[in-house]
Amino acid sequence: MIKDKDQVPPLMAFFLITGAQIGVGVLSFTSVINKYAGHDAWISIIVAGIIIHILIWLMYKVLNKYNGKDFAAIHREIYGKWIGAFISIIISFYLMFLAAVVLRSYMEIIQVWMFPDVKLWALLLLIMPLIYYIISGKFRIVVGVCFLGVVYPFTLMFALIYPLKYSKITNILPVFDHSLMEIVQSSALAMFSFLGIGALMIYCPFIKESSKSQKYAHFGNLYTTSIYVVVCFVSYIYYSQHEIKDIIWPTLGLWKIVELPFLDRFEYIGISTLFFVILPNLALYTWGSSRTLYRVLHIKQKWISITLLTVIYFICIVIEGREKILLASDFITKIGVGLLFYIPILFVMHFISRKVKRNAS
Amino acid sequence: MKKKLTEKKIQREFEKLFNDLKNSDDFIDYQIDHGTDKLSIGYFNSAIDNKKIEAFVLPYVQEFNYTDLEELDNIIPIANSFLTNDVSKIRRNLLEGFLFIHMEQSEQKYLLIPVPLMKTRQITSPEVEFSVVGPKEAFVESIDTNLNLVRKRLNIPELTIKKMKVGTITKTKVAVVSIKGIADKNNVDTVVQRIQDMDMDQVIDSSYIQQKIADNINSPFPQLLDTERPDRIAAILAEGKVAIFVDNSPHVLIGPTTLVEFFSAFEDYFLNWTIASAFRLIRVFAVFFSILVTPLYVAILTHHFEIIPKELLGTLVSSRSQVPFPPILEAIILELTIELLREAGARLPTKVGQTIGIVGGIVIGTASVEAGLTSNVLLILVALAALGSFTTPVYQMGNTIRLIRFPMLLFAHVYGLLGVSICIAYIMVHLLKLTSLGRPFFEPVFPYRPKDLKDAFIRLPFNLQDKRPFAVRSEKVLRETSNGKNDTS
């Protein structure tokens, strides 16, 4: 059982959900999701957000049934020792890989926009100890990083006021120009930007009165959805649809237009501040991964964390070049969406296992 | 037979005691005839007040009639004197400024009379935390005077003082002060426990204790607030915190504390809340400015000069055109110069210090720009940063800000703005991890407690602050007021 002192208030579920969801994707998702729905893709985000709401609701249904237990324990109860451990290990490897891809994607932006000839291995040597420093402490520290990683970068939203001056509302008209099917197809792509909610199943026991936190978790998802919708909306009225197709990071383009008397090229500030956005991702994913492994393998979490970070370090170095990064992130997001569908499966499975157990007794 | 043996043993112990005492030349003992009996008197000359002996001891010893020490004890008009034959007690009390009187006939009884010399500095106005308005008293080196200064502000029976002695050599008096029923018992127990567990031979100043009982002794951030203002201590005790008084130290420690508390001057409470809030915000801004400005200069000029608009770039380029060094070297040279000036100014007497300030500030500054060693833009920035770090009301936090600028500079040089971000992240995580007496140090930012923000970066009016800060975990959260029914007698 987790001690009362190590638990965080229910409100923190808001920051944990949002902190896990918003990441480097916020720079690029606008030019990905319009593949089917075009300028109506912002509706797809809302659709995706609603689906995520349902998934969160399902997760809390399961979690409330298994009062104060996490993924590893629930798996063990539903599937038994071996299969449960196997699924938990898969999930923790997924989280580790996700962290590596997030970090690598951020590094790519650094390489393209700020330092073309940065020595990646050296820069990572600065960042990896930072992540270890975060996850080596109590879970409280990870939550704190999520909190600051949500609050502080919010200031970047104000930078979206500047592009409005050069934007045309006609770019986004007429609304509902696409079929429902196209919007749904796009929302499947938009789901990529909402990944990471599954970590809820891992840190749930660390939230005080976790059933009360459901409200805040939904608020967190709502916040993420609204941030995405705002970014998407501004992007689509600033760029025309055939323009945005060829841009990899449209949000950076939005920042470029910011002009202050003492400041040009706001995107440099934006990219550096974005470090605080990806930090919660990295911390939460690696923590979740190491925590799940610890629950299954019962090795000291310290050693698991060090091993995981070393693996992430080498994954980041090995993945080199745009194609490989795209390949890796495609791969991991596909698994991620697949795992999102695992949540309803888990929901059904827990019903079945309950039934079976009741019948057996 | 047995009785004789113990008597002999005691005799030997006393002989040993006096031999030990006589090792030091300031130990004085002499004998006076009193009728048929002989009196011996002894004391440490450096620990006692001669005037007291002349006025209150010797006249009574010589002129009155008595047959044993108990009678003498009643005659001498000094409180807290006592009779004992405990060797270790005698030794300890002699060192603390007692004198002993012994009668040949009364066996092994010794009368101990307190005549300590109490020479302390006069109570002066605070120097480190000076304020224009408000009380002008500051703590001095005597713990009794300091406790008195607080007791007269909080004359309630709930004010409890727990006294201890620490340091195997110095045996320094330490007092843990709190208000019963308001302060969290756990906090008080933690402080007492940590002081009792302290393993030190010497405690010269309260800062020794601060360093020894801090939660993380390797952190550059001070985790206990120190103050020299009795009014601040009184206010903070009423808030439910714990104060640690140390003898021979004019600084009193307060815990648990939070980061924002280091940016609040006590003067904030003497001013109207709007003004006080504005000053606090300026102070917070000054600290951020002081930490970030030179690293940003280095980051931008080394890696991303595109950030600077064309018009401003012209000014910067023309001021840097003569400088042969990269920005990092330029910045480090100037920062080190300022640190040198500060160190020199702090070590020298005030008058010489002022001269150094003028030499450093005007002569070196102008000369180095004219010689083309630094750009005058950076000179302005560094000077402003130095000014900014002086605005922190607590000296120790100022030192921390001085220090953390340097790693930030290096990060900025290597990875530009990203490096600055990474360094800030390190500091932020460190602050998240820090605790003060086990309570989070970064409160009320995280753990996020909006109610405690009333007295953090801004100070809201008193009538909105009806509750004690949650960070203290006070046993009485609500501040009880008299509802306008004040005692008029």
What does this entry look like structurally?
Chain A: Belongs to the amino acid-polyamine-organocation (APC) superfamily. Spore germination protein (SGP) (TC 2.A.3.9) family. Chain A: It comes from Virgibacillus oceani. Chain A: It is a multi-pass membrane protein. Chain A: The chain crosses the membrane at residues 12-29, 41-63, 83-106, 118-135, 142-163, 183-207, 219-239, 268-287, 299-319, 331-352. Chain A: This is Germination protein GerB. The complex is a heterodimer of chains A (361) and B (489). Chain A has helices at 12-21, 25-28, 30-37, 41-65, 71-79, 81-114, 120-135, 139-151, 180-190, 200-203, 214-238, 241-244, 250-256, 266-297, 301-318, 322-360. In chain A, 49% of the residues are buried. The longest helix of chain A is centred in the last third of the chain and has 39 residues, at 322-360. By secondary structure, chain A is mostly helical. Chain A is globular. Chain A has one domain: Amino acid/polyamine transporter I (Up-down Bundle). Chain B is an alpha+beta fold and 489 residues long. Chain B folds into three domains: 9-114, no CATH class; 143-257, no CATH class; 269-440, no CATH class. Chain B contains 14 helices and twelve strands. In chain B, strands 1-2-4-5-3 form a five-stranded antiparallel beta sheet, with helices on both faces. A five-stranded antiparallel beta sheet of chain B has the order 6-7-9-10-8, sandwiched between helices. A two-stranded antiparallel sheet of chain B has the order 11-12. In chain B, strand 4 and strand 5 (110-114) form a beta hairpin. In chain B, helix 11 (327-347) packs across helix 13 (376-390) and helix 11 crosses helix 14. Chain B is elongated, with a radius of gyration of 30 Å. The N and C termini of chain B lie far apart (69 Å). The model of chain B has no long low-confidence stretch (mean pLDDT 86). The interface between A and B is medium-sized, with 35 and 30 residues.
